[in-house]
Amino acid sequence: MKNVKPDTILTHAGSNPGANHGIVNPPVYHASTVLFPTVESLEDAGHSFEGVRYGRIGTPTSQAFETAVAELEGAYKAVTVPSGLAAITTALLAFVSAGDHILVSDSVYGPNRLFCSDMLKRMGVEAEFYDPLIGAGIGRLMRPNTRVVFVESPGSLTFEIQDVPAIAAAAKDAGAVVMIDNTWATPLFFRPFDHGVDLSIHAATKYMVGHSDAMLGVITARTPELWHRLKRYAVQLGTCAGPDDIYLGLRGLRTMGTRLRQHQATGIELAQWLRNRQEVARVLHPALPDDPGHALWRRDFLGASGLFAMELKPVSKQAISAFLNGMELFGMGYSWGGYESLILPANPEKLRTASTWKSQGPMIRLHAGLEDIGDLIADLERGLSRLGEAA
User: Fold this and answer.
1) Do the beta carbons of residue 192 and residue 326 sit within 8 Å?
2) Burial, 198: exposed, middle or buried (Cβ in 10 Å; 0-12, 13-18, 19+)?
3) Average pLDDT, stretch 64-70?
4) Which sequence positions are flagged as catalytic?
5) Residues 284/388, Cβ–Cβ less than 8 Å
6) 174 with 310: CB under 8 angstroms?
7) Span 244-254, mean pLDDT?
8) Structural Rg of the chain based on CA atoms
């Protein structure tokens, strides 16, 4: 589809009723073996990644989802994998070899950091973490063997906005591939390929699925060459997602625009309310005008999702427990992006090596769900009252 808005792409991309007896939603193909009528057709299929020749390589279900995500993000094509972490690891493994050096933002998702510092290290790949606010200065860290620069903006837990165009330009000058974890913004609120990125990575588990009931990852590639390399290594690694989870991802895409706008509105309102509370030292949300990354967010982003954090003033661990243990609407659980609100204690200072993170008191990460804003504020107000009483 050309010259249509994102909501229209979300509604129609990857759907082909004419090929499915007029059925609106693409059916779920549970498949391993694919039969060929002749030796010639079997041989013609060869090792192509196009069409359908074996369940692990792709089916009409995975292709429909990949078509929709790629069209939404303005990519050449996409590759579906079983989780967001699988999307990160598959992308990295496809573009590094023993002896290579990669640069990774110091604020990345914790499991990404562990993979880089543990498994890649054991494979002979050196992962160097960089200050997320380095901008064009990342050029000073580039080496002849730097193959990948990995960006996450905003940063996981601490929500720094990176100067992606400046980082990408410096990386391109040195011949490195630029990857971004774009899960927070989704293709709706950040357009990575407009800012020099080569591969965009998503934990589709989150906003794309949107209902906390499936594990899914997807990687989009800017060019045919990047996609073919990515797909080849994904097939060699055997990273294929289950058809039912892919179906839930495609179904979730249809309402992602509507949901994400509500997540955004509720998240900003909660952030504004929290920064006026006496218990809160600061709120980390790039859409707030006084946030350090707000200018870059306004320049590069088209919106904000429902995930942000707050730093409390110093209190005891018992007070934090009193605050969190009695929440009624904010559940405590990992992941985010579903319709429900979530809250978790966070410890970002333990995950930094290239930059220092200091906070007055405990950090709390919140995800704004689709509940009524007044009810969410009331739940937080009761929790903060418990915190004050236990302090």
Assistant:
1) no
2) buried
3) 97
4) 56, 109, 181, 206
5) no
6) no
7) 97
8) 22
